[in-house]
Amino acid sequence: MSSSASQRRADEYSLSEEEYRFVCKLVYDCTGIVLDERKREMVYRRLMRRVRETGLPSFSSYCERLKNDEQELPAFINSITTNLTSFFRENHHFEYLKSQIIPDLIRGKSDRKLRIWSAACSTGEEPYSIGISLLEAMQGRLQEWDAKVLATDLDSECIEKAKAGIYKTERISALQDNRQKRWFMKGKSTTSDSVKIKSEVAALITFKTLNLLHDWPMKGPFDVIFCRNVLIYFDRATQAELIARYHALLSQGGYLMLGHSESLPADYIGFEVVGRTVFRRL
Fold first, then answer.
1. pLDDT at residue 95, as a whole number
2. Per-residue confidence at 189, pLDDT binned at 50, 70, 90?
3. 20 by DSSP, 3-state: which?
4. Is 152 in contact with 118 (CB distance < 8 Å)?
5. Which of 238, 237, 233, 225 has the alpha carbon at shortest distance from 262?
6. In what order do the strands lie in the sheet with 222-227?
C-alpha cells in the first residue's frame, strides 16, 4: 500500500474533535454517562470495532448513521458501556450480605420475603454471586422464603450472556474449590473449557434490560440494592437523582452497596454508613 493510500486509510478512521463531541453528547443523552478527553482512546477502540462490523468506511459515515437511524443506538450504547466484572468482585460486600444482612432479615422479617436488586449486572457475575451468597447464608432454608434477585443492565448483549449463565472456566478459577464444585457444572465434553451456573442459583434471578435514567417499572421495596462502580460515570446531579431514587425503593433499614471508589455526598442524611461502602437507609 502506498504512503498516500495509508494516509487516506488513517484519515478515514480518525475521530475528529467534532465527531468525538457528538459521540460524548449522544452517550450522555442516552445514558447519563459522562465522557471526557481521558476517555477518547477507549471510545475510539470500542467504536472502531462497531464501525468495522457495520462495514461503513469511516467514523464520519458512522456518525451520520447514528443521526439518521435510531435502530443503531442499542448497538452503539452496547459498544461504549463498560462491562468489567468478576464473581465475588469486592468480596467484602458479599461477606457482609451473607454474615450480617441475611441473618438480620431472617430474624426480623415476618413476611418471609427477600428482594435484592443488582442495578448494573453486566454479564451476570454479580447477581449470581448474590444468589450463591443467599443460598449459603440460608443453609437449606431458602425454600421457606420468597426470595428473588432482580438483575438489570443497560447493555442488552450483556443481559443475554447473563441469562445463559455460561462462563469460561478461568472466570471461576479464583473461587474456592468447594464453591466451584457446589454452584457450577462443567461442560459435558472432556475438552470443554466452560462452566454453567447451577439451576438452583439461576432460578433466583430475573434479568431485564434497563436504562437507569428512564422510568423504573419495579415498585420495590428492596432489602438490598447493589449499584457498584456505576455512579462514577455520572455527573453530580445525576448521581444525586439516582441516590434519591434508590433511597425511595429501599425498605426501611434497607442497604445500598456502592463501588470501592464511590461514596455518598457528605451532607446526605438518608443513609448511615455501616460498612466499607455499605450504607443503610435511615
1. 96
2. low
3. helix
4. yes
5. 233
6. 205-209, 146-153, 113-118, 222-227, 250-258, 278-281, 271-275
Task: Quote the CA–CA distance of 222 and 199 in Å, as a whole number.
Answer: 23
State yes or no: pLDDT of 190 exceeds 90: no
Calculate mean pLDDT across residues 100-128: 94
The pLDDT of 71-94, averaged and rounded, is 85
Burial 18-33, CB ≥16 within 10 A → b, else e: ebbebbbebbbebbbb
Instruction: Report which of 179, 31, 147, 153 is spatially closest to residue 84, judged by C-alpha positions.
Output: 153
Residues tagged active-site: 46, 153
Residue 58 per-residue DSSP state = -
CB of 120 within 8 A of CB of 227?
yes
Mean pLDDT of the chain: 89
- Between CA 102 and CA 78 the distance in angstroms is 34
Q: Which domains does the chain have, with CATH numbers?
A: 3-80 (1.10.155.10), 92-281 (3.40.50.150)
Using CA atoms, how far apart are residues 210 and 66, in angstroms rounded to an integer?
21
How buried is residue 148: exposed, middle or buried, by Cβ count under 10 Å (0-12/13-18/19+)? middle
SS3 79: helix
Q: Say whether the peptide bond before residue 221 is cis (omega within 30 degrees of 0).
A: yes
